[in-house]
User: Fold this.
Amino acid sequence: MPTKGLLERMKDGESVVVAEGYIFEFERRGYLKAGSFVPEVVLDHPKLVKSLHEEFVHAGSDVVLAFTYYGHREKLRLIGRENELERINMEALRIAREVADQTGTLMAGNLCNSTIFKEDSDTDEIQQEQVEWAVKGHADFIVGETFSSFGEAMLCLETIKQYGNGLPAVITLQPVKTIGLAKIRCAFHIGSML
Assistant:
């Protein structure tokens, strides 16, 4: 277990490096299909997931980010694996917790954009179950990442506050600006400590 949690590190002015990009790395290695990008590799090749976590820690990550990105109901429905939703999430959290405990790093649960959010919709059920599983999987904090909609990012933060059992949250935004036909993406991170 890490000796200092995320909030303690932030209060002490320390940097916290979170390596991510599991989806693209597994797609590059041929274990995920472009398009759906669902983390089915967690069940199909758990040793590879553990190994990639270890590689990221070796490269300098202070956090093992559970590979639950796109591990939500809507995405799994697209590939006919919705019935494995909880199993994928819990296995990803178990693997991440194991590596974090072995390496003395923090472990974070991971949520992402729902791909179906509209400003007048309510997608918090998708996020709620993932937040509850992150708590059950003993995450040190929860990352909600790569939201292009501020409304969905705020919904994620509120869901973490409501169901996260006091876990800190880090929310990242990737706003999209359309100029003519071109879309410009600018990623930045906003930390929100509960």
Notes: The beta strands are 63-65, 106-112, 141-147, 169-173, 176-179, 182-185, 188-192.
